[in-house]
Design brief:
By secondary structure, this protein is mainly α. It is 81% helix and 0% strand. It has one domain: Na+/H+ antiporter like fold (Up-down Bundle), CATH 1.20.1530.
Length: 327
């Protein structure tokens, strides 16, 4: 096994713990050494390192499977782009009435459904992988088309940018890495074959996770984070609405999933409960830049990892357990 494989494997296995460690080290850097000034080039490069490998593992052709799963895809659209934003809006108004940028962080999460982990968790829970891939594909298309208009509408006065500005950021953060990732995937398969590509997939996932850790360290190391250090209860305050948000999504999607077969229902749950947190960071960093307010947005997104990953794991074990019990 190569050194890169060992490193990326270690990162993937211990991602949740490493997220906590990296965030703590970043904040410690800010406290002890005053942090670092925001640098858009460095943060954008780290965001690319995080997102590009993730898209290598994603097949654009999977959008063609949508026609076979019209019902569950339609349900995912309702849950992802209507129910989720409304839930986030209500929780933001209730818990973050005096912290609009923390509410914006929650809304950003709500507007970015699914991720590469959606497929991974679906497989682990013995769900229908093709249904999950269909949900991912259609969600990405809707994000690219709708986020430039939905985000300013949801953010209100907290985001003074035009839809075209947001579209430019989406082009850099989603479309270009997506196209490059697809070209890379096709080139590997053409030269090495599908069997070889499958052996590389865990490495790409690990590289993406490594990029995520780099982004989190940079964000938590910003000199603007001194305010967060002066308010230690901010994390506790943010975890409560985040927990309500995720538990509500998992519960509601599980109930709606009963309208379909068990395996397709699992795909629906992960396709609507798992959010694209890495992409949220990738968009927030170049969109919001530096400053205390942007740190609050990123802080909420980063804390979401501590809820999303454990809940996804618990749900996967529960679903896998129900299959074993039924045999």
């Amino acid at each position: 096994m190569s050194t890169i494989s060992r490193i990326t494997g270690f990162v993937s296995r211990h991602l949740t713990k490493l997220i906590f460690v990296v965030m703590a080290l970043g904040l410690l850097n800010t406290k002890l050494f005053g942090g670092i000034p925001f640098n858009i080039a460095i943060c954008a490069s780290a965001s690319f390192l995080m997102i590009y490998p993730m898209f290598i593992n994603l097949k654009i052709e999977d959008v063609g499977e949508v026609g076979h799963y019209k019902g569950v895809v339609a349900a995912s659209i309702v849950l992802n782009f209507i129910v989720s934003p409304l839930l986030a809006y209500g929780l933001g108004r209730w818990f973050f009435a005096d912290q609009p940028f923390m509410a914006l962080g929650l809304m950003l999460i709500a507007l970015l459904p699914t991720s590469g982990m959606t497929a991974t968790w679906t497989e682990l829970a013995k769900g229908e992988l093709k249904a999950a891939l269909s949900i991912i594909a259609i969600s990405l298309i809707l994000i690219v088309a709708g986020l430039p208009f939905a985000l300013p509408l949801a953010a209100g006065d907290q985001l003074s940018v035009t839809p075209f500005f947001i579209f430019q950021r989406i082009l850099l953060v989603i479309v270009i890495p997506l196209v490059l990732g697809d070209i890379t995937r096709r080139a590997i398969i053409k030269r090495k074959g599908m069997a070889a590509f499958k052996t590389y997939k865990p490495i790409f996932s690990g590289l993406s996770s490594t990029g995520l850790l780099v982004v989190l360290f940079l964000i938590m190391s910003l000199d603007s984070n001194t305010l967060l250090l002066s308010e230690p209860l901010a994390a506790v305050r943010a975890l409560v609405p985040l927990s309500v948000y995720y538990v509500s999504l998992f519960a509601l999607s599980t109930l709606v999933g009963r309208l379909f077969s068990r395996s397709v229902g699992i795909a629906l749950t992960y396709g609507t409960s798992v959010r694209y947190l890495a992409l949220a960071l990738g968009i927030a960093v170049p969109l919001l830049g530096s400053g205390t307010n942007s740190s609050k947005v990123v802080f909420v997104v980063a804390l979401s990892f501590f809820i999303q990953v454990p809940l996804s794991s618990l749900y996967s074990r529960w679903m896998a357990g129900t299959v074993a019990a039924a045999r």
